Each structure stands twice: as C-alpha cells, then as structure tokens.
Amino acid sequence: MSSDHFLVTGATGCIGSWVLRNLVREGTPVTVLDLDTRHHRLPLVLTGDEIACIQFIQGDVSDYPTVEKALKTSGVTHVIHLAALQLPFCKADPVAGARINVVGTVNIFEAAKRLGLKKVVYASSTAVYGTSEEYPREPLPNDAPLKPRSHYGFYKQANEGNAWVYFQDEGFSSIGLRPYVVYGAGRDQGMTSTPTRAILAAAASQPYHITYGGRYCFQYGDDTARAFIQSARADFTGAGVFNIGGESVSTTQVIAAIEQAEPSARGRITFDDIPLPFPEEVDNRTLVAAIGPLTFTPLADGVAETLDIFRRALKAGWIKLEG
Fold first, then answer.
1. Quick one: which of 207, 312, 313 has its CA closest to 255?
2. For residue 155, which of 62, 107, 87 has the smallest C-alpha distance?
3. pTM for the complete prediction?
4. Helix H or strand E encompassing 18
5. Span between the terminal Cα atoms of the chain, in Å
6. What local confidence, expressed as pLDDT, does residue 262 receive?
7. Measured between alpha carbons, how far is 207 from 191 in angstroms, rounded to an integer?
8. Is the alpha carbon torsion for 109, 111, 116, 122 positive or negative?
9. Which domains does the chain have, with CATH numbers?
10. Known catalytic residues?
11. Reading across the β-sheet that carries 181-183, which strands appear in turn?
12. What residues of the chain score a pLDDT lower than 50?
C-alpha cells in the first residue's frame, strides 16, 4: 500500500470519480470531502468493494472549520481540489458560485498551508480564456492573456490569482490545471457535457442533439484524472497554472467515433454548428516540462470504453437516459 494519502474534494463528479478509481486501484488510501452523499456516479467506474475502501466525509468546502478538520483528522499527504459549481450553475446562482468556487478554494489552501502540506493541486478551467478570435491561430500557451466571459471563468481566474498570492506571501506551492472538454462516464452536467450524453444516448439506442460544434481539446476523464494525480506527486515549487492539452477534435469527428463504436447510432446524432467560446487548441508543453509526459487515450478508444461502461450501467439500472 502507498504511503501517500490523498484527500479529494468534489470527488463524486466526473474527474473526481476517475481520480478515485486510479488511487484505489493502485492501493493508495483516499479520503473524500464532498457535500453530495449520493455517490451515484461512482459505480460507473468503481466496484462496490473499491468504493468501500474510500473514507467519505460529508462537508461543505465553503465552511473553513469543516475543511481544516477533514484534512487534520484524515492525515492526508496530498490534496486534489475539484469541488466547484459548473458554469451554468454559477450563472444561475452567482452568490453560491462565488461561495463554493472561490471561498471554498481559499479554505483548501489555508487549511493545507496551516497543516504543513507541501502543495495543493486544484482545477482551474479553459473558461479563463476568451474566444478564439482574441488570440493568434496556434495552440494557446498557458500564459496567454486571461479574458473570461462568465462568472465561472472569473471565479477560476480569482483562484489562480489567490494561488499566486499564497506562494508570493507564504511560499505555499500549487498546481492549477485547466481542463477543457472532458468526456467519459460520469460527465452528465455542465456546458460541455453533451458529447458524453450523446454516447449515453447511443448506448440506449436513442437519438441525441449535441449543443455545439467547432473544434476543441477533447479529454478523456481517466487521462484528466491521471494528470491531477501526477501533478500532486510532482516535485514542484511555485504557483503554476497549466493547460492539460490533448487532441483537438471536431464535433463531427466525435460523432464519427460514436457511430464507429455503435453503428446503430448512424444518422441519429446531430449538432449545432456553433463553436464553443474558447480557443480551439491549447499548448501543454509547460505542464509536461513541470510534471513529465502525460497519457492521452485515442478518441476511438475513449468513446468505445465509455459506450461499454454505459451499456453495463443501463443494463444494471445504475443510470437512466434523461428525457
């Protein structure tokens, strides 16, 4: 068993579920701090015995005493902070978004610093950037100007700024990762979730309409989780914020991969030919230089694995296709 002990916030979301799967399967003790007690996504990627290996603490990251107690009592060595309200929910309730996304992140940093941890790894987002038209037509570097257009994007920018202040004033290090379009089992909400929902619809032999087109970095949930774990274990000093990168694909290519894996889906998945309001491709070379090479699952393989997971989940009744 590993001498590491991870605390993961927001671990019942898509990326978090895959983080738990990787840690449990390598024998690393892991504690979850999460307000959500349903854990309904976890059976998609973990067995019942694997879920039983995880210590769960119900708590709100926006409450500092709860955060400090969770870190102190569990004796963690590494923190991966994923808890956040996603873009549509921040738009619907900006106050809750600021409380969870910004105050919650400051609480994690403060508690980790006070308890003597070496660093925090946290989720930022490509939403800190502006539109493709605002940048040169090339893979966007991690130090490109930030031009968020949403509450969610500004909250993530605030977290990046606070992380920098913690290092400047306290010498406390961090790595922030900016996922883009993450897909795979467990990705069932958020602005960019509809390609994953299309895979679920294909598994259920149902038609589906993806809400956007264009090109974007399409990142498999397992690969994204591994990037967070690798960052947490990296020997790093500073307040780095990095793009995860990965293959830039079009919605047309995503649909083709779904149809290849599930031929009955041909002609049943449509999309709006409107690109996402973010750059088409991002550069991850600075992340690779900081933590080492990353793994990226080929599009066809990631879609096929997701289809298989959804087929099993539908058969077992763990998941239902939304109206």
1. 207
2. 87
3. 0.97
4. helix 14-25
5. 44
6. 98
7. 19
8. negative
9. 6-316 (3.40.50.720)
10. 152
11. 181-183, 215-220, 248-250
12. none
